[in-house]
Amino acid sequence: MPRAGTRSASSDTTGWVVPESLRPELARRYGPVLAGAEADRALRALALFASCGDRVTLRALELGHPPLVGIVDYKTQREERIDPEAFEPLAARRRLRVKNPAGTLTDGLCDAVRELVAAGGGLLEVDGEEDLGSLALVETLPAGATVIYGIPGAGVSFVRVDATAKEHVRQLIGRMERRKVDLGD
């Protein structure tokens, strides 16, 4: 993904916006989707991994197996709030905050993912929606890592990072609309 240019003091940034025509493809399942004890076993077996979503990040922490990077927005699909203290083990490594509107993958979110991976991990707090952060994780993590994210009502998706996954993410991003995004500041 291209790097962001110099940031201005305005409330605009640049990013990729999901067009309506791409939503069904983004909703498809990539990698196995596991639930319950099976998901817990698979999660515990992961070596290098990152998580996108409050519930999956929280579950990894509850199992004593924290991800390298966890991306959260402190709410769930049902708008249930998650206590920020629950993510303190990740935040203790490093904490970054970005704004990322729904249906958007901002340069700021992508840059923050790269920064956290390079710095040895931590917590990325998103003001807005974190869902597309999984794309930035696949793009950034090395081959052999895994990206996990929740599928509401189904379980946890486990995406193995390899050349095929990275190319798929690049193609998806290439089909998004690149434009200025209002962050609402």
Description:
This protein is α/β, with parallel strands linked by helices and 185 residues long. It has one domain (28-177). 32% of the residues lie in helices and 27% in strands. The protein has helices at residues 23-27, 36-44, 54-62, 88-91, 107-118, 133-140, 163-174; strands at residues 12-17, 33-34, 49-52, 69-72, 95-100, 104-106, 122-128, 146-151, 155-160, 177-182. Strand 8 and strand 9 (155-160) form a beta hairpin. Helix 5 packs across helix 6 (133-140) and helix 6 (133-140) crosses helix 7. The longest helix is centred in the middle third of the chain and has 12 residues, at 107-118. It starts with 11 loop residues before the first strand and ends with a strand. The model is unreliable at 1-10 (pLDDT under 50).
Write the layout of secondary structure elements.
Elements: E1 12-17, H1 23-27, E2 33-34, H2 36-44, E3 49-52, H3 54-62, E4 69-72, H4 88-91, E5 95-100, E6 104-106, H5 107-118, E7 122-128, H6 133-140, E8 146-151, E9 155-160, H7 163-174, E10 177-182
β-strand amount: 25-35%
Instruction: Please trace the helix and strand order, writing H or E for each element.
Output: EHEHEHEHEEHEHEEHE
Q: Could you tell me the radius of gyration in angstroms?
A: 15 Å
Strand order of the largest sheet: 2-9-8-3-4-7-5
How would you classify the helix and strand content by structural class? alpha/beta
Low-confidence stretches: 1-10
Q: How many DSSP E strands? A: 10
Give the biggest sheet. Answer: 7 strands, mixed
Number of domains: 1
Spatial gap, N to C terminus:
25 Å
Outline, from the CA principal axes? Answer: globular
Number of helices: 7
Mean pLDDT: 88
Q: State the helicity in percent bands.
A: 25-40%
